[in-house]
Write a structure and sequence with these properties.
By secondary structure, the chain is mainly alpha-helical. The protein is about 80% helix and about 0% strand.
Length: about 110
């Protein structure tokens, strides 16, 4: 076995342990922003493991899988952040006590 292969195997082992720790953080929380960061970190770990596996086994096609995984991880994190931002904005407007607010109409809704 080559020294390069041993280094790649060592890096993959470290990434697997870190990957497991991130899954524990995703499961345990304590809140949604921590879980979002854990999800993003898991996506980065998946990309790194796929790239290292591709390098180790001379499988250039797996680098395409790593790119797709990176894009999907980014989109997932972006969607979670957007959801959190919108839900927090809704909670902020509902918590203000307004005296007998008029019901919303179609004209009040934003258009896309």
């Amino acid at each position: 076995m080559d020294t390069f292969d041993l280094i790649i195997d060592g890096l993959m082992t470290i990434l697997v342990f870190s990957f497991l720790i991130c899954f524990i953080r995703l499961y345990r929380g304590p809140d949604v922003p921590n879980r979002t960061v854990a999800f993003d970190t898991i996506a980065v770990h998946a990309v790194a493991l796929t790239a290292l596996f591709s390098i180790r086994n001379d499988a250039a096609a797996l680098l395409d899988v790593a790119i797709v995984t990176a894009v999907l991880g980014f989109l997932g994190t972006t969607m979670l952040a957007r959801y959190l931002e919108r839900s927090q904005a809704r909670r902020g407007t509902e918590s203000k006590s307004a005296p007998a607010a008029a019901p919303r109409t179609d004209q009040d809704l934003p258009t896309r």
